[in-house]
């Protein structure tokens, strides 16, 4: 067995343990996603601090929730997943959207202050896409090529640095120059998860242009023929194309609903909402009802509206049970 394959299997096991990848069985036919039922007496303000990836989705959820409850207000700050745990610890946020699982150190910090760990709910599925400009003819990338393009250390088995399009077999005149790289900044959950899943926790090349949000990455790639970048798939526009990926060029896997929800696409991931819920006690009415809405048929319809993928019904039912404990 190659060292590269051992590393990938080890990292996948780490991701499974951390909750980044699901191994739950397929949903049964008798499982049903419930509709949301409006409740009386819901009012107040929700403060959300965290993921840029979830910024639009939080806005969609909040807008629809406010149509049900006009006396509810929202303040949404999307500076990156790493900002969510400190805000929850300090009490400056009621909800922490994250595009990655909590790190053990973040759980320890929260538990040291509050005496119990936070509650982490899976609320949607996404994928980290490798985007190129829509006219780029590249058919796809192997995972070793991804490593060679983005990584300085190449722990995932890259066979040397890939810095020019010609190294990927492109002979068109438009692709004779260097590859321009775009990605997220270090406070982003997308940055951290891509570092683990695509670079085997290696180092990025210093030529990666770090952007404050996935929208900036997509815009940069769309406006440059020689660019490539990684970002949340939910920010896809008509100007870019998500490349199929695979272990080899013979088994490229496209990025679509089936391959993400079935977790065949290599960089599939869950999106999370984290809350401070004391064990054995219910959440305050406002936060509880908002999360029940998110984990309802109507809330998951907003996930689709924003270009992401709803979680499987069996996963959703388990999140509702976790919320009700």
Low-confidence stretches: 1-30
Q: N- to C-terminal separation?
A: 44 Å
The biggest beta sheet is recorded as: 7 strands, mixed
DSSP summary, beta strand count = 11
How many H/I helices? Answer: 11
CATH superfamily of the largest domain, by name, is Periplasmic binding protein-like II
Strand content: 15-25%
Reading the helices and strands in chain order gives: HEHEHEHEEHEHEHEEEHEHHH
Number of domains: 2
Helix content: 25-40%
| Alpha carbon gyration radius | 20 Å
CATH C-level class of the largest domain? Alpha Beta
Quick summary of this structure?
The chain has 325 residues and is an alpha/beta fold. It is built from eleven helices and eleven strands.
Can you tell me about this structure?
- This is Phosphate-binding protein.
- Residues 41-298 form the PBP domain.
- GO terms for molecular function: phosphate ion binding.
- The termini are far apart.
- The protein has eleven helices and eleven strands.
- The relative contact order is 0.21.
- It has two domains: 3-126 and 269-324, D-Maltodextrin-Binding Protein, domain 2 (3-Layer(aba) Sandwich); 128-268, D-Maltodextrin-Binding Protein, domain 2 (3-Layer(aba) Sandwich).
- Helices cover 34% and strands 19% of the residues.
- Strands 3, 4, 6, 7, 8, 9 and 11 form a seven-stranded mixed beta sheet that branches. A two-stranded parallel ribbon has the order 1-2.
- By secondary structure, the chain is an alpha/beta fold.
- Helix 3 packs parallel to helix 4.
- The longest helix has 16 residues, at 3-18.
- It has helices at 3-18, 55-68, 84-90, 104-114, 143-150, 189-197, 214-222, 257-261, 285-294, 297-305, 313-324; strands at residues 44-50, 72-78, 96-98, 119-133, 141-142, 180-184, 208-211, 227-232, 240-242, 245-246, 268-275.
């Amino acid at each position: 067995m190659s060292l590269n394959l051992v590393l990938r299997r080890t990292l996948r096991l780490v991701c499974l343990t951390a909750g980044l990848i699901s191994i739950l069985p397929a949903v049964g036919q008798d499982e049903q996603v419930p509709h949301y039922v409006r409740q009386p007496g819901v009012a107040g303000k929700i403060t959300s601090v965290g993921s840029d990836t979830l910024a639009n989705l939080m806005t969609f959820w909040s807008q629809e929730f406010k149509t049900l409850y006009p006396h509810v207000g929202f303040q949404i700050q999307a500076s990156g997943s790493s900002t969510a745990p400190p805000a929850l610890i300090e009490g400056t946020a009621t909800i922490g959207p994250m595009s990655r699982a909590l790190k053990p150190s973040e759980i320890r910090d929260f538990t040291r202050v509050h005496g119990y760990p936070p509650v982490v709910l899976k609320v949607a599925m996404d994928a980290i896409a490798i985007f190129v400009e829509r006219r780029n003819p590249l058919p796809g990338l192997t995972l070793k090529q991804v490593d060679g393009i983005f990584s300085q250390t190449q722990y995932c088995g890259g066979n040397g640095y890939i810095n020019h399009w010609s190294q990927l077999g492109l002979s068109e005149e438009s692709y004779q120059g260097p590859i321009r790289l775009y990605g997220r900044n270090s406070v982003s959950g997308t940055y951290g998860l891509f570092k683990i899943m695509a670079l085997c926790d290696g180092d990025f090349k210093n030529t990666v242009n770090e952007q404050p949000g996935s929208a900036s990455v997509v815009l940069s790639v769309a406006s440059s023929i020689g660019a490539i970048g990684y970002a949340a798939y939910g920010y896809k526009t008509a100007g870019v194309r998500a490349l199929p990926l695979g272990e080899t060029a013979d088994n490229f896997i496209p990025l679509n609903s089936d391959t993400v929800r079935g977790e065949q696409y290599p960089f599939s991931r869950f999106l999370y909402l984290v809350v401070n819920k004391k064990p054995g006690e219910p959440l305050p009415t406002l936060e509880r009802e908002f999360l029940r809405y998110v984990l309802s048929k109507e809330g998951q319809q907003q996930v689709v509206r924003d270009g992401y993928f709803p979680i499987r019904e069996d996963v959703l039912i388990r999140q509702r049970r976790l919320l009700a404990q």
